[in-house]
From TrEMBL:
InterPro entries: Kinase-like_dom_sf (IPR011009). Keywords: Kinase, Membrane, Serine/threonine-protein kinase, Transferase. It is found in: Membrane. One of its GO terms (cellular component) is membrane. One of its GO terms (molecular function) is protein serine/threonine kinase activity. This is Uncharacterized protein. It comes from Lupinus luteus (European yellow lupine). Its main location: membrane.
Amino acid sequence: MATKGFKEENLIGEGGFGKVVAIKQLNLDGQQGSHEFVTEFRPYFNDRRKYSKMVDPRLQGNYPLRSLHQAIAITAMCLQEDANRRPVISDIVIALDYIASKSNCDSNTNQHLEPETDIN
């Protein structure tokens, strides 16, 4: 099924072909969509308890917490409103490569984040 893996909270109904899921598609040609996308996710960067909501749920919490924090920091730098303050892509690649190499070294430790569950 095409919607496998989508969050239930995005389910808006069911039709003859299965579940109907609401998603947002970012228009790369327009600035408004980009601004709205950044505005929507900015609160997640200010609260470490929300970091796990930005991670692919299929990882089921199987990632080093330190690597998540480093990746979030890189992401936040890339979303600076002033384009001149954003890192160049070559620096991003180096940083992500470093995180990946450290994650592989740390894969045998217990620094993993448990999946967040809703209390409601």
